[in-house]
Structures are given as structure tokens and as C-alpha cells.
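Figure 2 data, in text form.
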Amino acid sequence: MPALAQKKPKLDVVYVPTPQALVDRMLELGGVKASDYVIDLGCGDGRMIVTAASRYGARGYGVDIDPERIAEANANAKSAGVADKVRFKVANLFGESLAKADVMTMYLLTEINLKLRPKILKEMKPGARVVSHAFAMGEWEPDTHEVVAGKDVYLWYVPAAVQGAWTFQGEQDMKVQLTQQYQVVAGKGAVDGRPATISGKLQGTDLMLNVEVDGKRQELRGRVEGKTIKGIGGNWQARLS
């Protein structure tokens, strides 16, 4: 009696390979380097991870629900001589941890990106980069948007968490209450007892703030380190209350 053919998995996204020129630009845009760990969700034949390993020396991991694609990915890694740097797995992408990723790439659908968005923000470390081919993530605006060979490419930096009450000390004393919508920051506070209005933006852990007091604006740049912000180019720091 002949063996039963392996049942084809139900795919949420039809497999369409990303052109190699677009793979190259996505990895460039993501700033991939040898020390990075790259995760590709819906990796297909593995070309993104294989290129990251062969061109940049990065380590990587790809996941796809289709065993046929994973077999191709493993074969491509072996052919490129990077099988020791990469790993591929048959799995549902929603069940995979993103915590190790320095860079994550994807070519999925908008609705899947939106479902992944909370997981990305919760699991990926501040400053990690997310690069998507063709599809965005709703109201989370990309930090960079390019059109490459007629195709949209989006880049996001996972923002640090800065919402809350902060006390700034150094060049001037300031207490502010910051709110945050993804990488966009706003708030109100007081500088030496005078009302202040705050606006700003995060790029990962790098924070730029505009502080307006009495109609005059001052720019502060700092780096978020957990519950502390350390000034860049200025003698100040802030601590979360």
C-alpha cells in the first residue's frame, strides 16, 4: 500500500520569494552586522537569513510553517557554507520567542503584522530593528520608508519605554510627566518652577526632547538605560520616579 503524501499545511500567506536585490537592501536598512542575531518570520527558502550569514557573518534563525520551504532553506544554507551559523524550523511564527533578535525581517500581510505588533513591542529589546517588505504596522509609523525597485520597505526601531514621571538633574532641574505612543513622546512639567511643554521622539534607546519654557525651546538628547536617561552632549541625567 503506497505511503500517504504529507498533508500540505494551511498557509496564512502565499509564498512569494523576496527578490534578492530587495533582500540586500532590507539587510542594509536594518544595519545588520556580524554580532547580530537575525530572525526571519515566514522565511520561505531562507534567502534572508542565508544572505545575512554569508554577507555579514551574522547568526540567524528562520521559521516557516511549510516543511518544503524549510527543506529548501536548509539546502541553501548548506550550499552557501553557512549551515553552522543559521537554523531553520517548521513552526507557527506566533509561537516563537523574539527576545534574541537584534534584527527581525518579515514579508507577511498587514493583518499579520498588526497581530505581531504587541509581541514585537513586548519581547524585542529596545533598539532592535524590524524590517518589513511591502506591509506596514498601522498607526505605528515606520522610522524609515523606502521604495526599492517599486516595492515598499519599512524600518522600525523598537522604542524604549519612557512613559511616566521623570526628574531631570544637571544643567537644570526639571520634573516632567511623559506620555508615549510608540516612538512619539510628549508631556508637561516644570523647569525651575516654570511650566514646560515637552515633545520628542525615540529611535530605539536614543531620545530627543524639545523642552519649551516661556516661548524658548531647548533640545535635549539622551540615551535610555532602563529607569535612567543619560544626557548626550550635556551634563545631565534623569530618573524615573
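Caption note: The two ends are 71 Å apart (CA to CA).
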